[in-house]
Amino acid sequence: MISRSMMFMRMQKGIVRGSRAFCSSGKKQKVDFGYEDINFDEKEDRVKEVFHKVANNYDLMNDVTSIGIHRLWKNYFVSQIGPMRKRPVIDAEGNPTEEYEPMKILDVAGGTGDIAFLMHEEVQKQRRTNANAAAEITISDINSSMLGVGMDRAKERGYTNFNWLEANAESIPSLKNDSFDLYTISFGIRNVTDRLKALKEAHRILRRGGRFMCLEFSEVKIPVWKEIYDVYSMNIIPFMGQIILNDSASYQYLAESIRKFPNQDQFASLIKEAGFKHVTYENLSGGICSIHSGYKL
Predict the structure, then answer these.
(1) What pLDDT shows up at residue 65?
(2) Residue 169 marked in a binding site
(3) Where are the alpha helices (DSSP H) in the chain?
(4) What is the helix (H) or strand (E) element at residue 284, kind and residue range?
(5) In whole angstroms, what is the distance from residue 140 CA to residue 269 CA?
(6) How many CB atoms sit inside 10 A of residue 225's CB?
(7) Does residue 113 form part of some domain?
(8) Model pLDDT for residues 178-209, shown as the tens digit of each residue
(9) Residues of the chain with pLDDT under 70
(10) 252 lies in a domain?
(11) Do the domain assignments include residue 234?
(12) What is the per-residue burial (b if ≥16 Cβ within 10 Å, else e) of 197-221?
């Protein structure tokens, strides 16, 4: 059995510390941190601080605050990926060879491993009826505490076949161009300082024909439900954070960050701007969250 310290050493060897986001004009550009406007170069550290605080109880609080519904969303999200199977190895000239390799998946902002574990389990399920089902999954997160939780959980489950990478979604230079078949990010893109930059990086990393998939909170489309949800998320969730973890501020930020995130159509336009084609989205639970999808063609 690989100890956590050994696993962390492996991750450290491949560690990527993405370059800081900055304004090319050299001026102090402002960006949202929940309802607070802060300097562009401050957000990365502020977000890191939030997730260092919540990491050990992140999944517990998701269960409590969503009454377990987040697990249904994530299960459905993974079910929409489709077959995960071996693909031909591409040679230096871009032509398929007779050799095959597992589907390569990058799960960004996936530190605690919940989406990656579901994908791994789905591959095992598909393998019962398709011997070619196979995937190599890399879990990337900017936050070492979240990755630590994920590695502990993987060890408990006996999962030893994940790659772990501490990296900023805006810049992952250790990953080559055109190297992954699928890029997933779940409830993470809204915490990124420069979302368009992160989307362009996703486009760079994906192979031609590769797919981008994002599960993220969105704009509720049912008026009555929207009013109830606004009260719940802005008042009850921070209150739960205070009662259960003695930390209302982190959950106040998370609730506010949902309000500041672009709505479904606006985010779809941003995905298109990054270069993706056939961009679509599907609302879940009346638009509380949405699945966004696009392809690199």
Answers:
(1) 73
(2) yes
(3) 4-13, 43-54, 58-66, 69-79, 114-127, 144-157, 195-205, 223-231, 237-245, 248-260, 264-273
(4) strand 277-284
(5) 25
(6) 14
(7) yes
(8) 999 999 999 999 999 999 999 999 999 999 99
(9) 1-28, 32-33
(10) no
(11) no
(12) bbbbbbbbbbbeebbbbbbbbbbbe
Is 184 assigned a ligand-binding role in the annotation? Answer: no
> pLDDT digits over 253-290, tens only?
888 888 889 999 999 999 999 999 999 999 999 999 99
How many Å from the N-terminal Cα to the C-terminal Cα in the chain? 41
Query: Is 193 labelled as part of a ligand binding site?
Result: no
* 288 is a domain residue: yes
Q: How many domains does the chain have?
A: 1
CA atoms within 13 A on the CB side of 62: 17
Domain membership of residue 276 as a residue range:
4-13+70-221+263-295
Is 41 flagged in the annotation as binding?
no
What CATH number is attached to the domain comprising 267?
Answer: 3.40.50.150
DSSP annotation string for 44-86: HHHHHHHHHHHGGGHHHHHHHHHTTHHHHHHHHHHHTS---B-
112 known member of a binding site: yes
Taking every pair of Cα atoms in the chain, the longest distance, rounded to a whole number of angstroms, is 59
